[in-house]
Amino acid sequence: MDDQLEKSVPFNDREVSKNEEITAVPELEEVQDIVDNVKQQSDITPEMRSKIAAFYGRKAEEDHLAPSADVVYIIDKIILMTEQKAIDILVKAIEYHSGDPNFPGPTMEKIKLLVQGPKIYGMENSDYEFDLKAEAAIIRYHSPYPEVRSVTDPFDDPTTPCETFRSYFLGLVWMAGTTALNTFFSPRQPAITITASVLQLLIAPCGIFFAKVLPDWGITVFGTRHSLNPGPWSYKEQMFATIIFNISNSVGGVYYVYLVQQLPQYLNQKWVTFGYEIMLALSTQFFGLGLAGLLRRFVIYPVTAIWPKNFPTLALNRALVVPEKKGEVVNGWNMSRYRFFMWSFLAMFLYFWIPNFLFNALHAFNWMTWIAPNNFNLGMVTGFYGGMGFNPWATFDWNVAGTGMLVTPFFSAIQQYGARVLSGIIIIAMYYSNFYWSAYIPINSNESFTNNGTVYDVTQILNDKGDGVDIEKYKSYGPPYFSGANVFGQGAWFAWYPMTLFYVSIQHYESLKRAFYDMYRGIRYRNSAFGDNDDPHSRMMRAYPEVADWWFIAVLLISLVLGIVALKAYPVDTPVWTLFAVVGLSAVFLIPSALLLANANVTMGFNVLFQLLAGYWFVGNPEALIIVTAYGQNFNSQAENYISDQKMGHYAKIPPRAVFRGQMISVLINCFIFIGMLDWMVDNFDHGTLCEWNNPQHFVCTDAVLVFASAIEYGAFGAKNFFTLYPFLPWCFLVGGLVGIVWGVVQKFGPHFKAACRRRWSEGTFATWDKWMFRPLELFAWFDPAVFWAGALNWTGGNNLPYATNGIYLSFIFMHYIKRRYGPWWEKYNYLLEAGFDVGVAISGIIQTFAFDFGPSVVLNWWGNTVSTAGVDYQSYNQNATLYPIPASGYFGLAPADFPMKF
Q1: Where are the stretches annotated Disordered (predicted)?
Q2: Of 345, 493, 588, 792, which residue is least crowded by CB atoms under 10 Å?
């Protein structure tokens, strides 16, 4: 009956637009009579609907059950829903979202009471019925997540222009221009980057301009007319253009491979040609797209995969393009989304000049070290630059600890911060106990060092060709040593990989099994990729033709062929079997990685894993390590980028085939542009000074330097020697795997075990075990070890605690307190505040860089710009401060006779 009523009374019966204001509010008794009448008949007059909508609209807005722009649509669903169907929806939601950390806790408690009836819920029948149906309608017809509701609509118009000439033109032109610019400046330190958020601001006025000036010329293909100007610039066109440039508007992920291979100060390989470069680039870039397509069932269509990182982009595009209802008031604020974004952008654009140029001490607010700048212990524990950063207020710079904090869920941010604090304490303990000679090295450095404390020069151990280790030179120079934070970080990564793989697999076993089965059926029988997903957004997306699985498989195979040709046809000294090994491992780790990113905004980096494996596979072969790392890291990073954009298209109702075409074309053009630009730079840049530390324009190629150093340390020195030097590191894999398995099993099966014990044990025995074991363990039910330990990975090279401390304050305020107390304000403005501040920093930083680094040198030499760098904290950052001096013997570490020699 309920389904029949929904079909018999469509939303537009009374011609109410989503922005229409409801003014006439009838009395409760009159509305209740109308509601009772509605239950007995399917014919509802416009007058009756208007009165019902007015009452329910007021009630919905008072209870913050939906964004006000969507209230009218949700009201129709509330009116026509039976009580039994509402209960069925909520019971299913309780089961489906059990253990979902993003599902609002208060909402879960509320719906658990609602399904038990009005007496348990504690409200009168009329209010109970409204709350019951309202919660069910929002879950069934919109989204249970306020984050998603704030950036999406519960309805879609498939006729809205999307894949148009002007959206392709603007997206590709801006992508091409920014790819060239970002590639040119990528070797620079600091780099200058035009971000996707900045491009969103440029695309919108261009699209609006095109809508005004282009003629309505078009052609008809298969019964569909395609026009140069199909009407006003639409939100879908804006999102489609965003997806085109968002996926590939910068230098490709393998650019450092070409620099290391070609430049004379590195491998100096003259055989590197454009043909080799383009095949390698296309192989790595498109392989990610193929993997992303096959992962749709795992991390795009499930409603629990919310992808927080996409919300600012969606919110900003809505503010730029979608018209708003005037006069809308949320928690006392009536400012439009566009105006709020512009004020946020302007405020941060102006403010960023203060910490970045006028008053640098606000950027690095190491105020405790000002008391005694040369106090070593104070600098190492509290310092911003080279210290650990235990400082309750470490910065006034949004770019240090603000960006991303209004996107990451609070449960994820607080757990990661806890791991940062814990790991920082462990590193300090390691340092002051001289754990594996760490006290002779700066505490938080990402450099490698010789046994006399100088920075390790890898060229001192290379043979004449520069592609391997000369044993005699190595015996004289010695192995590399690492800081306490660096060694800890390596161990933390080694533990995190198996921990995440096992824990996520156990926690999501049923959904993973179902997704694998659906993928098999999709490939074998060409079934729909949506499977059993029946949330509102998946139902709306079913109106569009899907991308067939074999399309993505074809992309995978073509990418694999290109990779094989690149490895076989050119002297890269890397066997083809490594490509298959990397692909297999990437497929194993990509699913848990994507699940973490989709739910907790935590991403797994794979460079450490593949550096380690290549160091085992190819001892003494640094070039093979570079190739293996490039493939392993870029397969996964590109796949996650593609998946993220596909989820963004899912939210914006962009046809899946349009997303596929746009991504394919954009990536293809991007590869040719960034390779052409890099080759031009190598051939023409300042008479061979590219990637030299004395480069006058600061094009020092930090990424290439680090990759080359890693290639020597892991590829030439070898992982076996590395583990001989630090023998505790291999045990980290075992510890991480055990933690992931034990924690996953306890969390998943603990409640069932407790229930079984309650049934079988006596009341007294169970009470004792419940007090001392079950209840304490239940306190950790919310804890996710994979998310938690991700916070322990962020050390070395200045990335210390100050980059998180102030951010956790922001996360608590916006992602917890305001989100719960002022829901409508949070839904309307939160992601626009993040976008406005990020864009303000980006544009302000670009202007300052061009003004002061490329123009006349301007330096404000006053106390506010020098105090933070005046002490031992900054000396440690520059590798010039250690706890212990070099021993009288002239070296620390292993004696020359004990150097690792597993080559």
Answers
A1: 1-21
A2: 588
